[in-house]
Amino acid sequence: MLLLGCDGSQLEQAAVQNYSEPVETKRLTEVAGQATAPIQVNEQQETRKIPEAHHTYVGRYSIQVSCADKFVMCEQGTVDYILTLLPDGTAHRIFVNAGKISYDTEKKYRKDFWFYDEQNHQIVVARSTGVNFYYNVDHENNLIMDRNKIAIATENNREYFKTHPLPSQNYHLIKSS
C-alpha cells in the first residue's frame, strides 16, 4: 500500500510509476520487540524441525527451585521451573509459584528455541532475551544446567549476567514420563 501527500501532478506521476522494485519483507516476529529482546537465532534454525534422531530430547523437564536463588525471581518458598522442548525447535519455559496468585508485569512465560549440540552432548536453549542456556544430558536423558558455560559462553551471556542473576547451581531438570 502506498500513501502519498502531494498535489495533482505528483499524484499522477506516482500513479504511472512502475513499482516492480524488489521490496524487503520481514515477518512481524523478526522485528517486533527487537529493541528490547533480540533473539539470537538464525532464520534457518527458527524454521527447521528437530531431526528425528534428536526427538528423544523432546518433552517436559522440571525441578523445584528455592526462592533463595535470585535466578527464579520470587520472594519466598519454591517455584517449579518447567522447560518444554518441542519437535518444531521451540522451547517453552515457565516459573510456577504454587499457592500464589499474582500479576506479573515481566511475564514469566517465555518462548525460546532449542537444538541438540552433538559435539558437546548438550541441549542449547536460545532464549528470547538473547542469551543461551546450556544443559548437559545425563544417561537417563534428563538435563543438567551447565552454569559455568551459561555465564561465559557468549558475549550476550556475559553482558546479560552483569545485571541479571545467574543460577546458583547446576540444576538437574527431570524429564516427565
Quick tags:
177 residues, 19% helix, Lipocalin, alpha+beta, 5 helices, single chain, 8 strands, disordered N terminus, eight-stranded antiparallel beta barrel
Please tell me about this protein's structure.
- This protein has 5 helices and 8 strands, in the order H-H-H-E-E-E-E-E-E-E-H-H-E.
- The longest helix has 9 residues, at 8-16.
- It has a single domain, classed as Lipocalin, CATH 2.40.128.
- Mean pLDDT is 76; it is low at 1-26 and 28-47.
- The chain has helices at residues 8-16, 28-31, 43-47, 147-152, 155-163; strands spanning 59-66, 78-85, 90-96, 110-117, 122-126, 132-137, 143-145, 172-175.
- The protein has 177 residues and is of the alpha+beta class.
- It has an 8-stranded antiparallel beta barrel with strand order 1-2-3-4-5-6-7-8.
- A hairpin with a 4-residue loop joins strand 2 and strand 3 (90-96).
- The radius of gyration is 22 Å and the shape is globular.
Could you outline the blueprint of secondary structure elements for this entry?
Layout: H1 8-16, H2 28-31, H3 43-47, E1 59-66, E2 78-85, E3 90-96, E4 110-117, E5 122-126, E6 132-137, E7 143-145, H4 147-152, H5 155-163, E8 172-175
Antiparallel strand pairs: 1-2, 1-8, 2-3, 3-4, 4-5, 5-6, 6-7, 7-8
Total domains: 1
Beta content comes to 25-35%
Query: What fold name stands as the CATH topology?
Result: Lipocalin
Q: pLDDT average, as an integer?
A: 76
How many helices does DSSP assign? Answer: 5
Task: Please tell me the CATH architecture by its name.
Answer: Beta Barrel
The side-by-side strand order for the widest beta sheet comes to 1-2-3-4-5-6-7-8
Helix content: 10-25%
Helix/strand structural class: alpha+beta
Question: What general form does the structure show?
Answer: globular
Distance between the termini: 51 Å
- What's the CATH class, please? Mainly Beta
Give the low-confidence spans. 1-26, 28-47
Write down the Rg.
Answer: 22 Å
- Counting DSSP E segments of at least 2 residues, the number of strands comes to 8
Return the string of H and E elements: HHHEEEEEEEHHE
Largest sheet: 8 strands, antiparallel, barrel
